[in-house]
Amino acid sequence: MDKKNPGSGYSNWSIALHWFLALALLSQLFLGTIMVDIPKGPESDRAYWFNLHKSVGICLAIFIILRIICRLKYGAPDPLPSMKSWQKLASSLNHKLLYLCMILMPTTGFIGSLYSKYPIKFFGFPIARVVEPNPVIKEITSEIHAISAILFFILITIHIVAALKHLLIDCDEIFQRMMFRNKSKQSN
């Protein structure tokens, strides 16, 4: 996106990070939801799935930081003039809360893991313990992590429904802004 022409669409970096994170975060949310039901025990593979979830979460945190930097650098297109003021407000609030969840989820997950009695393994490699286990901090951050996941699911659902409304009912350009475009055709 050209900062001088904010209505032109998102940058290709923003688009790529959006779709990558959309798929990766939905997968991570799905894994987080099902792994908590894996029974504990010596024969259980629960630790494997938790460590995978933590490892992927650390990687996703890096991509989330890149997404935020991209958003700050390139900005976002202005809302369409045809959008009602309540829609503009709802869209802005939903996006801000999505970003809040994208920051809160890996942060609380990592802090909770640091204060857990279990070691953190990054794709099988142990991460040095820098703090002593603290069940109170672990419980608080785990609770925030779980509540954030529920909020994230709700916000993502709203985001998808709104995008589909713009694509299928309003037939405006909102959905297309987040699709890759051939740059040579844009100048025509």
Describe the structure.
This protein is mainly α and 188 residues long. It has one domain: Up-down Bundle (Fumarate Reductase Cytochrome B subunit), CATH 1.20.950. The chain is 65% helix and 2% strand. Strands 1-2 form a two-stranded antiparallel sheet. It is elongated and about 60 Å long. The two termini are 17 Å apart. The N terminus and C terminus are likely disordered.
In which range does the helix fraction lie?
Answer: 55-70%
CATH architecture verdict: Up-down Bundle
In CATH, the topology is named Fumarate Reductase Cytochrome B subunit
Shape: elongated
- What profile does the largest beta sheet have? 2 strands, antiparallel
Strand coverage percent: under 5%
Low-confidence blocks of residues:
1-6, 184-188
Q: Can you identify the CATH class? A: Mainly Alpha
Count of structural domains: 1
Query: What is the succession of H and E elements?
Result: HHHEEHH
Mean pLDDT: 90
Overall number of strands: 2
Q: How would you write the strand order of the largest sheet?
A: 1-2
Q: Compute the number of helices.
A: 5
List the helices and strands and how they pair.
Elements: H1 12-35, H2 46-74, H3 85-114, E1 121-122, E2 125-126, H4 135-170, H5 183-186
Antiparallel strand pairs: 1-2
Helix pairs in contact: 1-2, 2-3, 3-4
What's the short version?
By secondary structure, the chain is an all-alpha fold. It is built from 5 helices and 2 strands.
Which structural traits does this protein have?
188 residues, two-stranded antiparallel ribbon, Fumarate Reductase Cytochrome B subunit, 2% strand, disordered C terminus, mainly alpha
